[in-house]
Amino acid sequence: MQLFSFFASCPRGLEGVLASELTELGASAVSPTDGGATFGGTWPLLMRANLHSRIASRILWKLEERAYVREDDLYRLAMKIDWPALFSVDKTIKVGVTAVKSPLRSTNLAALKVKDAICDRFRQIDNTRPSVDTQEPDMRIQLYLTDSVATIYLDTSGEALFKRGYRVESVEAPLRENLAAGILALCGWQIDEPLYDPMCGSGTFLIEAALKARNIAPGSRRTFAFQYLRQHDDQAWQALRLEAKNAERNDLPLQISGSDVSSTALLHAQANLAAAKLDDAVSLKQLNMLDAKAPAAAGLLLTNPPYGIRLDEQDKLLAAYPEWGNVLKQRFSGWRAYFFTADPMLAKAIRLRPSRKTPLFNGALECRLLEFKLIAGSNRGHD
């Protein structure tokens, strides 16, 4: 069976856990790199990765690569690809460009050269060309430029993979689903371990944990761009989906719970759980973090606390952080606690000594995943 080269993108900081996930899915030659991982595999592996990856943002198929100096080199590179053999002319297209230290002055012009080449290859057949759709294209072509090498990828995912299809309600600045899944992997959470989020917002950590625990494929409720390619084998695809469905563990009892002081946030979480058909898998309660109690003798506390933008919000959070630390020390002894935050003051103000600080990015926002091992009488910071 023919082998292909792929690139899976992910939020920065999750490259290692993404590489481990791809290896578990059967990928070969997996190599983490900044912002994702390269890997090799068959076409069925590509379908499996899109269906099952919880951490990838997109799965890109590497089509061509060569050195370049100017924009015309990009046109010639794209002309080498037999685009009509990949998809039909009625499919809309969009060309995106990512450039790292590229000598070219305009990424827009680079994208235009690739688009022109795609259209010209189609015109060679019957003088028709695909239309451009910058909002919801059928086919996304990605041009990646370094200082001297150009690579053309075809996006096999379509919509980003973090769009699982269950989010119907959200709070302000919700956590992306694949970032939440990657953080769960970084924490080493196991499905038989109690999980509690005391500031759960719209419930992303809880839902991603429940999906994993019940072995529900994150892509089971959506379509993918590879389904519109000429080489798509729908019979094999439907067999893969059926295999995933039969592997679900919907009767598995779970110890996943969350709370939030906001009744609106809880309504959003309940709506998302219902949309994901997981409302029986997670228990929710309206509760202030200061009133939180451990639901078991040991477990994992994982939360993404609010991040103050306005000055008055920042002052309130700075006053709350040491109170949160007291709650952890007094009521969660024996637990592992993780705070995902963009606020550099939390690590100091909570008055607990982090055992680990993992840099992560929520989009362009630099964050830290702070780990606290809550053993009685330890981890106290200096007042």
Structural notes for this entry:
It is built from eleven helices and 14 strands. The protein has about 375 residues and is an alpha/beta fold. α10 links the parallel β11 and β12. The protein is elongated and about 70 Å long. The C terminus is likely disordered.
Q: Which percent band covers the strand fraction? A: 15-25%
Poorly predicted tracts of residues? 378-383
Number of helices: 11
Largest sheet: number of strands, sense, barrel closure: 7 strands, mixed
Order of helices and strands: EHEEHEHHEHEEHEHHEHEEHEHEE
Query: Gap between N and C termini, in Å?
Result: 63 Å
Shape: elongated
- Strand arrangement, major sheet: 2-3-1-4-7-6-5
Task: Briefly characterize the structure.
The protein has helices at residues 15-24, 43-52, 71-79, 83-86, 107-126, 177-187, 204-213, 234-246, 263-275, 311-331, 346-349; strands spanning 4-9, 28-33, 36-41, 58-67, 93-99, 139-145, 149-155, 195-197, 256-260, 282-286, 300-303, 336-341, 356-362, 365-373. With 383 residues, it is α/β, with parallel strands linked by helices.
